[in-house]
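Milestone M4 deliverable, item 7.
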Amino acid sequence: MRTFAIARVLCLGAGLCSTAQWATAQFGQPHDPKDDKPGPFKRTADGKPDLNGLWLADTLAPFDVEDHEAVYGIPAGKGVVVDPSDRKIPYQPWALAKRTELFNDASNDPQAHCHLPGVPRAVYTPFPWQVIQKPGLVVFLYEYPHGIRIIHTDGSHKHPEGRDVLNTWMGDSVGHWEGDTLVVDVNGFNDQTWLDMAANFHSDRLHVVERYTLINPKTIQYEGTLDDPKVYTRPWTMKFFIRAQQAGADIMEFECNEGERDLQHYVK
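Output delivered:
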């Protein structure tokens, strides 16, 4: 069992641990560049790319999805925003000011209080997640913190509408296949999650379209387009690679007490 001790909360929420040690511990040694090249891969019984297995995002987006210089709690690094071309989230002016306000207190991060990370943050939170794939159905099991997404790809599930629209941490996911790409349409969010530790945020009007494309047996290319008319001036897109983990590995039991309230006493 993996326990989310206060030291770990500080490490993730306030960036108080060594970046090099953190990256090596979470992502392993640097990957082989050949893993980015297209190659043959297994298919399931219905002919779809076989995504079954354990995966982990190969990115430092958990710190900040934008390109960024080093500041307290955030190491310098390359972000994952690919559109707009300036690699910046297209915030409305009030929202940009709000992000600065939120970032001034690391204890504001909902993930530091053990809440579900939301989408797309769940994809690149630095803990592995498992895919279980059957004809017409794909399930994502996240180690942090026991998160689950059930994605029907056979048309049997539609987004609720009108008064039935959901307002949840992980949203409502509806999937379909476009060739060899799994496309997941997600809405029905609350406004309580962040995109990273740098206080990039959204409202309850967030709409995410994810694209999972298996490049080869070891690599998924992830692309997520986020639209939120309350917070952003236009839709924007992130892109990064997700790596297969060692055969036989499994997600662990990760305990994190939702609503943890003592972090503020450790970071002020």
